[in-house]
Structure formats: C-alpha cells, structure tokens
Prior knowledge:
One of its GO terms (molecular function) is transmembrane transporter activity. The chain is mainly alpha-helical.
Amino acid sequence: MxxxxxxxxxxxxxxxxxxxxxxRLATPAIAFYTRDVLKASMFAVSLVSMxxxxxxxxxxxxxxxxxxxxxxxxxxxxxxxxxxxxxxxLYPLTSSWLQVVGIKLLNGFLNGIxxxxxQFVIAVATPGEIRARVxxxxxxxxxxxxxxxxxxxxxxxxxxxxxQMWIASAFFVLTGLIMLLSYYLLYDEITPKRxxxxxxxxxxxxxxxxxxxxxxxxxxVAFTSGEITYVYVSEALRISKERxxxxxxxxxxxxxxxxxxxxxxxxxxxxAKMVKLTSMMAAVSPILAAIKTAPTVFFGIFLALFAFQSFxxxxxxxxxxxxxxxxxxxxxxxxxxxxxxxxxMLFGVAYSLGEIHxxxxxxxxxxAFLPFSIGLxxxxxxxxx
Length: 385
C-alpha cells in the first residue's frame, strides 16, 4: 500500500477516535441532564436518543446521493462534523426535553452526513483482501474512544453540562480537520459510483439480505444505543451515574476488541458464517439483559455490542463491492438508524409495562424484542455459507 494512501487511512482511523470521544462524552451528560434536571420520563429519554438516530437515518441516504454527484462533495462530511461543535453548545441553554430533542435532530442530521462518508472512504480506499479487518480497526478505535469518553464524562461531572460541551466541541472541530486532510490524501481512491459490468467486483453476499439482517439486528440492539442505556443500567442496578458510564465504556471496549477476530475470520474464511454467528448473539442479547442482575444485564449488553460491532465491518466490506458503493453504505447506515429508532421507541413505550417477579426479575421492555430475535435467527439461517 503506497504511503499517501496509508497515511490517509491512518488519519481516518484517528478521526474515529477523536470524534467518538466527543460523542461519548456528550451522550451520558445529556442523558442524565434530561432525566435528572429536566425531569423527563423514560419515554422522553427514548425520544431524545431516537430523534438523533432518526435524523441520522435520513441524512445517511442523502449523504450517499450527494456523494454520487461528485466526489469533491466528500469534504461536506468533514464540515458537517465540525458543525456538531456549534450544535452541542445549545444543550446547556435548554429548559425542556422537547428542546433537547430538537438539538438531537440537528446532531443526528450532521452525523448522518459525516460518518457514513468516512466509512465509505475507508472501505473503498482499502484493498479488498484486508478490507473487513481495516474497517474493524477503524470501529475499534472508536470503541477505545468510547471507553475514554465515558471516563472523561465521569471525571468532568463537576464541570456541569456547559463545561463538558466545550470539551466535546473541541474534539468535534479536531475531528473535522483530520477528516479534511484524510480526504485530500485519499481523493484519488474515492469512487462513489462505478459502471456495472459482468466482470466487475461483486458483493459476496446478497446486499438485500445484508440490509434485512442489518435492520433486524439494529432493532434488537437498540437498547444499547444512546441515552436510554445509561438510564436503564443505572436504574435497574441502582448504581451511580459515574460508575454506569465507566462500566458501559469497558463493556463496549471489550466487545469491540474481540470483534476484530470475527472480522479476521470473515476476511480469510467465511463471511456468511460470521454473519450467522453475529445474528445469533444479537438475538439472545435482550433476553439476557432483561434478567435484572448485574452479570446478566452486562453480558446481554456485551453480546449486543459484540454482535453489532462484528457485523458492521463485514457489511461495509460486502457493500463496498457494490457498483453504487457510496449509496449502499449510506443506505445500510440509514436502515440501521431507522431500525434503531423503532427499537428504541419500542423499548421506551414498553418500559412502563414494568417487570415480572418470580425466581428472577425480568424487564418486560426487553422481552418485547423476542419476535425480532426470532426473525433475525431465521434470516441468518437462510444465508448460504
């Protein structure tokens, strides 16, 4: 791999690190501010989380379509990332959870433009034989940052929301600048749309089936997404905000670290078998997390994150081979975000159902995902190895 391309890819990996620190610091800060200061219900907290992913779903497709117009427009992704620095400064000015939802919509729109473009560039710029592993490293650096971002939150609680958002803003600006330089270096490798030819590169798995599995998996693992996770774990296990953030950070980090080996197996062995494995893990995760003990809650969250983080690089590798790769990768981001919105709202609505008490205490909101879990297992079983 030539030096220019290698430096560009390394810079994009670094951008995943710096951008995720900003996002992960902001997430628990906004979650507990909305719940404790603004006195929002769990349904309202779900709306805060899911308004972000809903906006991100629509702008992900928009970003893919925009990029097909001309690869120079990839720089818009970096500018959108820096726009987050301004958006997060609005959170301390809010006085109701509805205002938080509005800002979250703006954040989601900006993130939907920026992150899928970065994922597309790193996928198409990397040689096919190592694509899943390099993409996994990209997501892994995001998980390291997620862990550190949770620690940053825990150690800056006394600064208040305003102080924490200034730190997040600095990281968003830095991330945008790194992206700009990376896109400049990788510009010759960016091919948003190719002619469909009989002898061209083709996806190893059916893209429609990959999108279906992505959708079902995102619905199921939505309980690990955003603000609702922090509030659920803190309230279910009765632990402090700071400890919740740190424990969830470590859970995400370990799941991402192990997911690299799944990506390696997808590169050198069978993508279909790895997708089947991740589908099974995601399917059982909410059932385990529904059992209100610390080991089962965290193991359920771990399995959900492990499955999702293992599946992401495989799906990007498959879709990067599609002749309209930028739209395909934007599309899978959109599908996953829309499905996460559905799953998050299901969790928020079902949270009021309470619990079942017998030998074990079971959360009914998480058991509501059972039909989707069954569907995911069946869909994964249909893949041809």
